[in-house]
Design a protein that fits this description.
With about 375 residues, this protein is α+β, with helices and mostly antiparallel strands. It has two domains: about 40-255, no CATH class; about 260-355, no CATH class. Helix content is about 30%, strand content about 15%. It has six helices and ten strands; from the N terminus they run αβαββββαββααβββα. A four-stranded antiparallel beta sheet has the order 1-2-5-7. It has a three-stranded mixed beta sheet with strand order 4-3-6. Helix 1 (about 15-65) crosses helix 4 (about 245-255). It is elongated and about 135 Å long. The N and C termini lie far apart (about 170 Å). The model has no long low-confidence stretch (mean pLDDT about 90).
Length: about 375
């Protein structure tokens, strides 16, 4: 008896089946690459935001320590090593001189940060702008006239929608003291770790406004747009602006500095005592007296009401006053009508002070 076993033939894949498999694999790979791309992009945005917070904290600490902010680093400046991270001034190393420029990159060495801390999620340097001025009272980079309440000079404008010719100021009326810019995924206009500047955005676009180094004081804030919007172009910059009130909030909270109002009231008290002290020997308020700047960086105003010797004066009322014009820097009166802060010294109070000090009345000179 013979057994017959039918051979089992192997069956290969048809061309159609292979095609279907390849299409499925291609779709899965595409989905995987897309998901990976999204994850990487989200990570870059997250890293950028975290580093912006680190830089902001470093600027706050620096301000609390030195009563000034550092000048921008200028990678393209003559004699400067690209991306060195130093504080570039008109006289190198002399912090009493003005900044070489308003806009540059973050001076990370000056702030005590690593270079990596000032690179955004796309490995480009953040652009850094700071309020500078020839006048000490308006300059945030020199400590000679530090005042927590003085305004910034940098303007952050919102363009909404992206096609609108009209912009709205986001930091008015005090404006921003500092502006930080990440030039986003396209990196147009940003400085690189190689010490070179990327290709500039198209002239006249919003990204070109943000990439303008040197003396630029205006920056544009917009929703991201990959499409090339007519006139104002595509936009992927991330712009962070910091006002004076935000910059010093932590310092006020931990007691490193007083608030603008607190500093002003302290100055009013100290200056009032100094004026009284200068008048004790003669019992006459001085005709003029040098005034310090208030907490908003504005000189206080001294006004003498009684010019005669106080002890022989028969009138009552105000002898002299010292006034701070407040945050709005206008002589608009005390609250509720205005925000002036006034120290008033009366004739009667001065008579009491002079009596305790033993000050004598002016001698009576008989008529000729």
């Amino acid at each position: 008896m013979h057994l017959y076993v039918t051979p089992i033939r192997s069956r290969g894949f048809s061309l159609v089946e292979l095609t279907v498999v390849l299409v499925i694999v291609s779709i899965l790979l595409t989905m995987g690459v897309s998901a990976l791309t999204v994850q990487l992009e989200n990570a870059a945005h997250s890293s950028t935001q975290k580093k912006l917070e680190i830089i902001k904290d470093a600027l706050t600490i620096y301000l609390g320590k030195y009563r000034r902010l550092p000048c921008p680093d200028l990678p393209a400046a003559a004699g400067n090593i690209a991306g060195q991270g130093d504080d570039n001034r008109t006289t190198p190393g002399n912090v009493t001189t003005t900044c070489s420029a308003i806009v540059g990159t973050v001076p990370y060495i000056e702030l005590g940060l690593s270079r990596d801390a000032v690179l955004d999620g796309w490995e480009n340097f953040f652009t850094y702008a700071v309020t500078t001025d020839a006048l000490d009272t308006a300059d945030w980079t020199r400590s000679t006239a530090f005042a927590v309440g003085k305004p910034g000079k940098l303007v952050a404008l919102s363009r909404d929608p992206a096609t609108s010719a009209v912009t709205t100021s986001l930091a008015a009326p005090e404006n921003a003291v500092v502006v930080l810019v990440s030039h986003g995924p396209n990196g147009l206009g940003a400085w690189t770790v190689q010490g070179t500047q990327n290709v500039q955005p198209m002239a006249g676009t919003d990204e070109a406004e943000n990439a303008d180094l040197g003396a630029n004081t205006t920056f544009i804030v917009r929703e991201p747009a990959t499409a090339n919007i007519a006139v104002y172009g595509a936009f992927d910059d991330k712009v962070t602006f910091i006002k004076a009130s935000e910059l010093v909030a932590t310092l006020v909270k931990d007691g490193s500095v007083r608030s603008a109002e607190g500093e002003t009231r302290k100055l009013l008290s100290d200056t009032t005592e100094a004026v009284i002290g200068a008048s004790i020997s003669s019992a006459t308020s001085p005709a003029a007296y040098p005034m310090p700047n208030d907490g908003w960086g504005t000189p206080m105003v001294y006004a003498r009401t009684v010019a005669a010797q106080i002890l022989t004066n028969t009138a009552a009322g105000t002898a002299f006053s010292i006034t701070s014009l407040g945050a709005n820097k206008l002589a608009d009166g005390v609250p509720p009508g205005g925000d002036d802060i006034v120290s008033i010294v009366t004739v009667d109070s001065l008579k009491t002070i002079y009596a305790r000090a033993g000050t004598l009345p002016a001698p009576v000179v008989p008529p000729p």
